[in-house]
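F.,

This is the one I mentioned.
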């Protein structure tokens, strides 16, 4: 994988970003192609609106030059009748342009959001080891909103003003080549500052977005641990740190806005200053009889259209620069490749599934800590239907065994097999479908109890969910909830007790009905009554399944067929509780400490 270190890693995925490039926005073109019909209709409406605007100065010239003659009344009436029709066409075309472009922007951004989120769900565990969840959410929300503003409005305005500028410039030349030379000669003086400042705006805009993402990440962490925050009365510290982060984001945004404001001021002064010069020259030509007053008026209007278009482009350019930075940040995520992929030709796992798992001389270190071996030459075999416990002190490598079994990571050496197939050669999705996990820290969604249990198998029926809840001994507390299975449990299951959350986790595993069961400290944080209920549920779950149990509390592994003792990433002992207790090794010492304390 190209990167795994949060925002810094995402930044390096694209390489140097020192100058303004439109490339990030061009990456949105494939999304626009999906809706080519709507985009073409919007372009037609845009062209019609621009052309009708360019008709107005011709009518003004004819009215000034011929409207005050003997037939002036008839001419003025006809001119104004045409102008009303032009105004109606302009209104309809502008409304269509706004509707089509805005809905197109909403559609494209919705697709981008979906694709980025889907890609995030496919990224490997090592990406999330250091990435900030709050920042990723910021990219999905704030950055996509910035893109929506550009695609849904700024690009449309930019195209409209570009057409007005090009059309106005062409008509200026047709009206008076001499006066046009003065105006067009000023264009390089106007455009160069736009390009130069556009780079600065984009760089500072990206800095502002990154700083805001940092603030969002900090807020997300605090709100996720608000009870701990309040328990330690650290609200003032949190407020001050978040206020400092927000202030940094404000300063970065103010710097970006200052650059845009300066860019706009320079552009407007240069544009309209050139018009004043042209008006003075034109007035001299009218006095000399070289052009008519109407032609000068027509030229001035076209000059105003061209100048106004160029001036608007200067402001829109800043917004597009911001959107370019936002698009860049989003597509950085899309460019990150997962380190865990399905092989080009995955080997199918044999059927029927047996749940046989084996580690063969496995060495592994976490990418974030390459200097420390988490597992060092670990080998063991778990037969189908066998119940094996893995014990050892904290940091011994117990959870790492589960991480490798689920193929969240690949070992640095050795191999892990399921039913005789190297899991690196299998499709990770097929592998994980054969595994049920009951973790220590249960992830409960802010949804109903029913939806949380269904998370174990999304296609399960209501009857299957109810049966799983019953087998997990969860039906007794579910019956007491206000809406039963349809009761909302709050974010992270805040309205449930630890035992209730664990029983939901067991119900998920029962619903999954997988041949290999992984239990990670499933009862370690429960009171005696909850522990008893969860133990009964787990006993039901473990029947006829291969089971690997991680436990610190050795009383929970007495019924296992075999116990593997890990220490500093190596297997130091294997055997039954009885044999290990009399061997005088690490297990005996841990057992003595726990059972004598009890």
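My design for it:
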């Amino acid at each position: 994988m190209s990167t795994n270190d949060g925002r810094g890693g995402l930044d390096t995925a694209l390489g140097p970003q020192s100058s303004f490039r439109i490339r990030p926005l061009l990456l949105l073109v494939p999304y626009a192609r999906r809706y080519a019909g709507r985009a073409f209709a919007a372009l037609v409406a845009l062209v019609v609106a621009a052309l009708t605007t360019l008709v107005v100065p011709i009518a003004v010239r004819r009215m000034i030059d011929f409207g005050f003659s003997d037939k002036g009344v008839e001419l003025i009436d006809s001119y104004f009748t045409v102008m009303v029709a032009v105004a109606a066409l302009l209104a309809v075309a502008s409304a269509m342009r706004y509707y089509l472009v805005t809905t197109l922007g909403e559609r494209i951004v919705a697709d981008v959001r979906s694709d980025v989120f889907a890609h995030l769900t496919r990224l490997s565990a090592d990406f999330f080891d250091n990435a900030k969840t709050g920042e990723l959410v910021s990219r999905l929300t704030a950055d996509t909103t910035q893109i929506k503003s550009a695609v849904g409005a700024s690009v449309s305005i930019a195209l409209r003003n570009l057409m007005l500028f090009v059309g106005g410039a062409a008509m200026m030349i047709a009206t008076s080549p001499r006066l046009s030379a003065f105006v067009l000669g000023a264009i390089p003086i106007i455009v160069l500052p736009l390009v130069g400042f556009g780079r600065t705006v984009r760089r500072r805009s990206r800095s502002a977005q990154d700083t805001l993402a940092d603030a969002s990440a900090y807020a997300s962490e605090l709100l996720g641990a608000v009870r701990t925050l309040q328990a330690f009365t650290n609200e003032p510290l949190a407020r001050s740190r978040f206020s400092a982060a927000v202030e940094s984001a404000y300063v970065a945004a103010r710097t970006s806005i200052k650059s845009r404001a300066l860019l706009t001021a320079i552009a407007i002064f240069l544009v309209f200053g050139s018009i004043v010069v042209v008006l003075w020259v034109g007035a001299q030509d009218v006095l000399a009889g070289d052009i008519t007053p109407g032609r000068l008026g027509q030229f001035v209007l076209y000059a105003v259209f061209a100048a106004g278009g160029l001036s608007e482009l200067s402001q829109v350019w800043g917004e597009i620069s911001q959107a370019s930075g936002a698009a860049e940040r989003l597509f950085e995520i899309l460019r990150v490749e997962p380190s865990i992929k399905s092989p080009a030709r995955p080997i199918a796992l044999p059927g029927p599934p047996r749940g046989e798992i084996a580690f063969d001389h496995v060495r592994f270190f976490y990418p974030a800590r390459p200097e420390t071996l988490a597992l060092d030459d670990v080998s063991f075999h778990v037969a189908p239907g066998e119940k094996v416990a893995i014990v050892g002190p904290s940091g011994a490598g117990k959870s790492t065994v589960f991480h490798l079994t689920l193929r969240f990571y690949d070992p640095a050496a050795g191999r892990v097999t399921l039913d005789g197939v190297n899991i690196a050669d299998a499709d990770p999705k097929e592998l994980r479908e054969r595994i049920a996990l009951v973790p220590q820290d249960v992830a409960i969604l802010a949804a109903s109890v029913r939806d949380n249990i269904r998370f174990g198998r999304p296609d399960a029926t209501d009857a299957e969910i109810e049966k799983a809840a019953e087998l997990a001994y969860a039906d007794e507390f579910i019956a007491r909830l206000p809406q039963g299975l349809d009761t909302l449990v709050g974010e992270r299951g805040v309205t449930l007790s630890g035992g209730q959350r664990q029983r939901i986790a067991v119900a998920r595993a029962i619903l999954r009905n997988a041949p290999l069961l992984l239990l990670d400290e499933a009862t370690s944080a429960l009171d005696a009554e909850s522990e008893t209920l969860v133990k009964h549920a787990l006993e039901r779950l473990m029947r006829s399944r291969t089971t690997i149990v991680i436990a610190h509390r050795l009383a929970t592994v007495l019924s296992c067929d075999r116990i593997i003792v890990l220490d500093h990433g190596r297997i130091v002992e294997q055997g039954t509780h009885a044999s290990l207790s009399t061997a005088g090794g690490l297990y005996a010492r841990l057992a003595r400490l726990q059972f004598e304390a009890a």
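The two ends are 48 Å apart (CA to CA).

Talk soon.
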